[in-house]
Amino acid sequence: MDQRVTAPDSLHELLERQRASFAAEGAPSLAQRRDALRRVEALLKSGQMRLADAISADFGNRSKPETVLSEIMPGIAAAAHARAKLPGWMRRERRTVGLNFKPAKNWVEYQPVGVVGVVAPWNYPVFLTVGPLIDVLAAGNRCMIKPSELTPATSALLGELIAARFPAEQVAVVQGDVSVGRAFCTLPFDHLVFTGSTNVGREVMRAAAENLVPVTLELGGKSPVILADDFPLAPAARKIAVGKLFNAGQTCTAPDYVLAPAESAERFAELVIDEAEAMFPAFDGNPDYTAIISDRHFARLGELVAEAEAQGGRVLRHRAPATGNVRHFPPTVVLDPPLESRLMREEIFGPVLPVVRSESLDSAIRFVNARPRPLALYLFTKEPATERAILDRTISGGVTVNGTIVHTGQEDLPFGGIGPSGMGAYHGREGFLRFSHARGVHKPGFFSGLEFMRPPHGRKTRLALKALAGADLG
Ligand code: NAD
After folding, report:
1. How far is CA 340 from CA 198, 213, 344, 414, in A?
2. pLDDT tens-place string over residues 251-293
């Protein structure tokens, strides 16, 4: 067996080691959690250039500024935020006590759940492993991570960097493909976080259900943009092009398609191509333009565009020639895509932007609501009433207003999908709560009225229940 692949048999052993260590040591203190978070920050800070090189090698070119912006900076910010907020998050919460139970005390304390499994995809191979890890450690847990097999250099480096800073009883990285992923998801974790596609998410949830393991599923889908007719086209085109072309569209929260006012859709489509050409004047040797992860993914994007064009969509292409040396897929806009085409049914996950004409705000909202609930929704308007109407009448995991993808990197906002785009949010306080058990504790006072109501029930019980509930027990 390949040395870099973790044998499925050893997965159980690793889980048992983490469990035993957790049982022996109990919940870590505030100082221990802060120390663990500092180690993650140090890993990101000192390892960032090696990580950026590894990701670029895995992609065949990944823009290094994009790696720092999307994988390193949000990780460091999330760990620092958790370190600062932990005392408040960990504090026990006093809760009210009903009149019948006074003078008792009620409180909630947040306990680590134990060992959390993390399964990650390839598209942000650092932030989608280290991001969950930060919240898992903040909540005081142990963690086993299974990164993607499509980013082997990054996954191996992550394993090395983590092993240098954490004992395997606390954090361990296991390596392998889908078969290891499957075996991993059959482990009786105390919680399992899966980030990946909706179809695999279904399988993961099924496997977890066998052991009644609670899951957090961070899945994909088609995130729409609603462009209202009051918003100027040029800045909208710029912000949408930036969000779409970041990581060459291989972003779970990338704007998938745009619902544009019917009369300006064509002009908007041209402006998006202008913006793409301004940002990426050429592909050949351009380190800023990220490549598509594999030949299979590259070929699929070509098929989606060709099918939409054959069915009547109008394709606008970036003018610079792609040489084919690197898997650079040219930024492409498809105006009036056929709604039954794969382009409009499947998550695109590449630098292809369908622009759909919409007759009114109402029809745009109906379009979104007729489809599965998306991970993200973007809206462009300067009218507060329009903004409110879209926020009130649609449901999505998260939203950026008058921008794209930026909500994802906010350390103090919950991040997660809804329905087919996922379940359970993490990041910040929501992440701490996600991986903690809220344990309710009741402590009776020196006196409890219930003491008088134990059997055999006589006059005292009857009088008390009459007074408390109005019950006439005769
Ligand atoms: P994927 O579902 O193919 O794989 C994700 C991980 O699951 C990999 O580590 C893989 O080895 C493992 N895996 C595959 N099959 C498995 C199985 N049957 N059982 C257990 N594990 C299995 O996803 P991908 O192609 O790596 O990533 C792209 C998808 O991820 C897109 O749909 C994208 O939208 C989604 N995504 C979502 C988020 C989010 O936060 N919501 C973030 C990034 C990507």
Report:
1. 20, 37, 6, 33
2. 999 999 999 999 999 999 999 999 999 999 988 789 999 999 9
Question: Rounded CA gap, 242 and 404, in Å?
Answer: 8
Q: Specify the pTM.
A: 0.95
Distance of CA 120 to the CA centre of its chain: 10
Which residues carry out catalysis? 218, 252
Residue 370 DSSP class: T
Instruction: Single out the residue of 111, 110, 107, 98 nearest to residue 441, CA to CA.
Output: 107
**DSSP E strands, 168-275:** 171-173, 191-195, 215-218, 223-227, 255-261
CA 195 to centroid of ligand 1, rounded, Å: 5
pLDDT value, residue 450:
76
Q: Which domains does the chain have, with CATH numbers?
A: 8-219+425-437 (3.40.605.10), 223-416 (3.40.309.10)
- If you measure from the C-alpha of residue 199 to the centroid of ligand 1, how many angstroms do you get, rounded to a whole number? 9
Question: Which string of b and e fits 27-47 if b means at least 16 CB within 10 Å?
Answer: bbeeeebbebbebbbebbeeb
Selection from 221, 203, 207, 164 nearest residue 43 by Cα: 164
Do the Cβ atoms of 333 and 316 come closer than 8 Å? Answer: yes
Please give the C-alpha separations between residue 8 and each of 11, 177, 201, 252, in angstroms, as whole numbers: 5, 11, 20, 29
Atom of ligand 1 nearest to the CA of 417: 41
Q: How far is the CA of 1 from the centre of ligand 1 (A)?
A: 24
Mutate to test the pocket of ligand 1, among 4, 123, 158, 198 (most ligand atoms within 8 A of CB): 123
pLDDT tens figures, 437-456? 999 999 999 887 777 788 99
pLDDT for 324: 66
Q: Give the binding-site residues of ligand 1, using a 6 Å CB cut-off.
A: 119-123, 128, 146, 148-149, 177-178, 181-182, 185, 195-197, 200, 203-204, 218-220, 252, 347, 349, 375, 417, 422
Mean pLDDT of the chain: 95
How many residues belong to the chain?
474
